[in-house]
């Protein structure tokens, strides 16, 4: 998949409580979740986010609660991809399972600035910063994870397995 | 090459002779868990995709504990969705609010004897790692994983590297499992064990009660760990024997780590050097020993949760609060972790001590820990809490502050009106 958009940048340890505060977890309707995405960290997020935008953040992105509502809220708010040096493991799993593209790339996460226009190819892992002309390559997904992604997420993978 | 305890469990449940860090394996699941926040989306996925029946009606627990007793209409609908699903699927371990065995999920699953050493457990709740205390491999997942695993009875794991946490020495008065885990998180950071397993070992293990071990494993996730796990010893056996159906006398021989198991890192902790710890806002790694900081005035104290809501915690809190009064202007909220803890605390006279000292005693619920209900903070308010997270907005307004501590520091702070230790009383 190829995405392009402007970068919205955050620091390290962005936790799922700020991605979607628990006070809104009395619903799992994605549009309702998106309306409150990031509001405790960045009240301006919902005004500035445009379809296709890319979050670039510090290490341990998505730490904390296992709420799948977090990647769902990010995706539903229009974000196409998240780039970080590392992801908390449940968030990593939840992103694969719900179809939010994520890329691990420490150098890109460090160098790319807020507001830059970038292009991302999740198949090759190539990240291009159109504002600086720099190019980065993210770590590839393990083959098995690739199988889950190409089976249209874990649900498709499980359906195929159950029908065997 | 030798294997860690986690590798031993995962390879066995994957039907393999061995496995190494980085391997992707598919393991059979012994137990699954969901709560009122994470289960409704899982049910949606389960039903929309025609998954039919759950793989085993006796290996799934569904627990309405986060926003229950229902805090609003939407929460009531979520609990109802889960209740209806449990009924239609004939799920044995649906725990109804108020009924026998009910309470906060990670307090009740081990206490009801549902988790055994060597089990592979997943739960759609990040603190599912709690059950490593009884020698199980146990980890948190999201709702899609729960849905697919309820159908298949299996799931995939990447075999984790392990950090060996070598415990030695004896724990000091007013210190407990909470101080040990806060100390460890302070030392290695909130991503210090990212994707990895924390394997506790050493002569210090036997010094820790099962309540301590449950608290320690509960917060393994707060340094990014996939799981935390303790070896099975006589304390574990004693704990399990009175809880597991049919009793529990011996751990299987295969469960112990090999002497030549490989660890990516070894962290040695001398328990005698640990002082009562407090994690300042807004990360659990932001730790300070009590007595090393200026007076911090507080507005609220919370004692309870899946981290510190067990009967041992209630006893410790009551011992501090007995004959004392909560300081003026402070709300102290005590939440026994389960109906069983509640009843035990009642019969031991602990609830009377709490009420006499000026505490609110709540029904078992996760409530305030995640800013749900029963103790949400206003702008600028500060709370000392025995819960597990102090992120921005965790307990309410984004400009409120949560200080994480053990039970005795929390109880003492309620009396003092500022963060302090029982020694200051």
Radius of gyration of chain A over alpha carbons?
15 Å
User: Beta-strand level of the residues of chain B, as a percent range?
Assistant: 15-25%
Strand content of chain A: 15-25%
- Weakly predicted, low-confidence segments of chain A: none
**What is the oligomeric state here?**
heterodimer
**How many DSSP helices of chain A?**
8
The rounded distance between the terminal residues' Cα atoms of chain B is 54 Å
Q: Profile the largest sheet of chain B.
A: 7 strands, mixed
User: How helix-rich are the residues of chain B, as a percent range?
Assistant: 25-40%
Sum up the overall morphology of chain A in one term. globular
Shape of chain B: globular
Order of helices and strands of chain A: EHHHEHEHEHEEEHH
Please give the share of residues in helix of chain A. 25-40%
Overall average residue pLDDT of chain B: 97
Low-confidence stretches of chain B: none
Strand order of the largest sheet of chain A: 4-3-2-1-5-6-7
> Ends of chain A: how far apart?
29 Å
Rg value of chain B: 20 Å
The tally of strands of chain A reads 7
Describe the protein.
Chain A has eight helices and seven strands; from the N terminus they run βαααβαβαβαβββαα. Chain A is an alpha/beta fold and 164 residues long. Chain A has a seven-stranded mixed sheet. In chain A, 34% of the residues lie in helices and 19% in strands. In chain A, a hairpin with a 4-residue loop joins β5 and β6. The two termini of chain A are 29 Å apart. By secondary structure, chain B is α/β, with parallel strands linked by helices. Chain B is 29% helix and 18% strand. Chain B has a seven-stranded mixed sheet, with helices on both faces. The longest helix of chain B has 16 residues. The interface between A and B is large, with 43 and 51 residues.
């Amino acid at each position: 998949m190829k995405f392009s958009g402007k970068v919205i940048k955050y620091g390290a340890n962005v936790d799922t409580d700020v991605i979607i505060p628990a006070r809104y977890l009395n619903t799992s309707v994605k549009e309702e979740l998106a309306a409150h995405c990031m509001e405790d960290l960045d009240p301006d997020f919902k005004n500035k986010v445009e379809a296709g935008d890319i979050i670039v953040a510090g290490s341990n992105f998505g730490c904390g609660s296992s709420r799948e509502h977090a990647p769902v809220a990010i995706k539903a708010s229009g974000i196409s991809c998240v780039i970080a040096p590392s992801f908390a493991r449940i968030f990593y799993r939840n992103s694969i399972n719900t179809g939010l593209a994520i890329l691990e790339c420490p150098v890109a996460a460090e160098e790319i600035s807020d507001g830059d226009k970038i292009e991302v190819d999740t198949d090759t892992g190539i990240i291009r910063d159109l504002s600086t002309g720099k190019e980065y390559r993210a770590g590839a997904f393990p083959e098995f994870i690739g199988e889950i992604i190409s089976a249209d997420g874990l649900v498709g993978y499980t359906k195929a397995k159950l029908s065997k | 090459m030798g294997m860690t305890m986690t590798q031993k469990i995962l390879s066995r449940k994957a039907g393999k002779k061995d496995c190494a860090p980085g391997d992707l394996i598919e393991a059979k699941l012994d137990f699954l868990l969901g709560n009122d926040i994470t289960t409704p989306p899982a049910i949606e996925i389960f039903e929309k995709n025609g998954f039919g029946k759950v793989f085993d009606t006796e290996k799934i627990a569904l627990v309405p504990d986060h926003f229950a007793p229902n805090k609003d209409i939407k929460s009531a609908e979520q609990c109802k969705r889960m209740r209806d699903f449990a009924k239609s699927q004939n799920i044995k371990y649906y725990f109804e609010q108020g009924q026998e065995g009910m309470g906060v999920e990670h307090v009740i699953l081990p206490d009801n004897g549902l988790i055994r050493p060597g089990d592979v457990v997943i739960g759609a709740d990040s603190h599912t790692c709690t059950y490593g205390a009884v020698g199980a491999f146990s980890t948190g997942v999201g709702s899609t994983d729960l849905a697919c695993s309820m159908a298949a009875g299996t799931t995939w794991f990447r075999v984790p590297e392990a950090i060996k946490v070598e415990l030695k020495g004896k724990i000091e008065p007013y210190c407990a499992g909470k101080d040990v885990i806060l100390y460890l998180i302070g030392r290695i950071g909130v991503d210090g064990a990212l994707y990895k397993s924390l394997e506790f070992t050493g002569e210090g293990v036997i010094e820790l009660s099962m309540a301590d071990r449950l608290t320690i494993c509960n917060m393994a996730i707060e340094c990014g760990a996939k799981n935390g796990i303790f070896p099975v010893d006589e304390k574990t056996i004693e704990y399990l024997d009175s809880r597991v159906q049919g009793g529990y006398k011996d751990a299987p021989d295969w469960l112990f780590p090999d002497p030549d198991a490989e660890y990516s890192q070894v962290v040695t902790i001398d328990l005698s050097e640990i002082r009562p710890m407090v994690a300042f806002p807004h990360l659990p790694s932001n730790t300070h020993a009590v007595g090393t900081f200026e007076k911090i005035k507080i507005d609220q104290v919370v004692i309870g949760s899946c981290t510190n809501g067990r009967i041992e915690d209630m006893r410790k809190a009551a011992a501090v609060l007995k004959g004392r009064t909560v300081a003026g202007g402070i709300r102290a909220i005590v939440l026994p972790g389960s109906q069983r803890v509640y009843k035990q605390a009642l019969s031991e006279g602990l609830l009377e001590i709490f009420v006499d000292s000026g505490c609110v005693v709540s029904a078992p619920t996760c409530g305030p820990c995640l800013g749900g209900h029963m103790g949400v903070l206003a702008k600028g308010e500060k709370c000392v809490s025995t819960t597990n997270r102090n992120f921005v907005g965790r307990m309410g307004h984004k400009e409120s502050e949560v200080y994480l501590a053990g039970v005795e520091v929390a109880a003492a702070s309620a009396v003092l009106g500022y963060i302090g230790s029982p020694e200051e009383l």
